[in-house]
Amino acid sequence: MSPQMLALGLTVDSLDDTHAKIRIPSWLPNRDEHGFVQASALLAAAEFASRVIWYRHLNPELVEMSLNGTQASFLKSTSHACFCSCELKEEDRESILRQINAGKTMKFDSETVTKDEKGQQISNQVFNWTLRPLRPVALSGGSHGG
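Request: output the structure for the sequence above.
Response:
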């Protein structure tokens, strides 16, 4: 986890191959002047939820993951702790990984939903990502010299 995520107090509430849920505490550094959780904290947690699922499937030495853009809708304010959730459909993941393993750069969107601890939806975000292989993919059955 990056120093920024640690400074925000973000914690991984749950994580598996298709789902990430990140907790944002409602402590003072994450609040605005009116006592509400800041949009910047919500966006950072949502971006991390969207990214961390892929960390389970990618080797960062072999594949670069970069954020190209985001769209966010903030539906209501809250002074409570929040949870950002991101779902990754297995068939989408496998399709993207096949293309990456074939040496192709892939662009895709992922969505997150943020709810407060009472279950009220606070915001939703769409992140535009690029996955780019950093090294050529070795072909099986290649020449062995001799």
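The chain has one domain: 3-133.
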